[in-house]
Specification:
The chain contains 10 helices and 17 strands. By secondary structure, it is of the alpha/beta class. It has an 8-stranded mixed β-sheet.
Amino acid sequence: MSVNKGVKLSEIVSEFNLKWLVEPYDISGNIIVNNEVNRPSLQIAGYFDYFDNTRIQIVGKVELSYLSGMDSSHRRSALEALFRKNIPCVIVTHDMETPGEMIELAEAYNVPLFSSRVSTSRFMSALIAYLNVQLAPEMTTHGVLVEVYGEGVLLLGDSGVGKSETAIELVKRGHRLVADDAVEIRRVSDKALVGSSPEIIRHFIELRGIGIIDVKRIFGIGSVKDSEKIDLVIKLEPWVQGKAYDRLGIETEYETILDISVPALTIPVKPGRNLAVIVEVAAMNNRQRRMGYNAAEALNKRLMMEMQADAETDN
């Protein structure tokens, strides 16, 4: 199940080194739920149709220049129409001098008012990128996430099928563990999923018969990673005698996670199969496909050409 969560305004203040323009007060309960921001040029001019009051308001040179051309009473009236909309906060960029009316109205309507030294475009770009990650739709799934040759591989399957054992073998072979047992997945864009581990179990892995081990302590800092993009899903399942498994791989299977389709494979598990090597090959093959080469299609094309040549010879 996916969820959307908010980010504390106080965390944004800390992340971007914002400076209070009014007397600081407790904003620990102020939550930002919208990953879009707004420059209130039109609102200052009096246009409020389609105005979304959940967005952070960014005031730059254009807005302040427009305000400076007004007399005090018109400036107060224009700003009051904005501040009474119950907006989450206002951030003035470029460390520009802020009109006294803005400070007074921020205090009167209890709207946090900050300034940033960064230019408007750079600040907005960084803030939107930060909010996109923090407010991304999120879900938690039972599985293991590892980085193999730069590919993020999500291992899924029933409990006891061998996900953790495969992951520890991959770590021994020089790859990196991201998450074991619980994988938190965020949709950070329309095409990208990023997985990580809940902080409380980060870098730990459970091996039946041994118990909990700290991968970072045993194998070193290079054996773990905090987050990784999900490029491939591998579903492990016990080998079923007589079941038809894909042996060519011409058609790509997909797993839909948070409305994003991710290439997927189903790997049957039985004694004697080296799953770590299979996962390595699957990761490299997936990367090769993404770069435009499909071995199954290349073989099929070669066979078709051979059959055509034989047919021409017979004629």
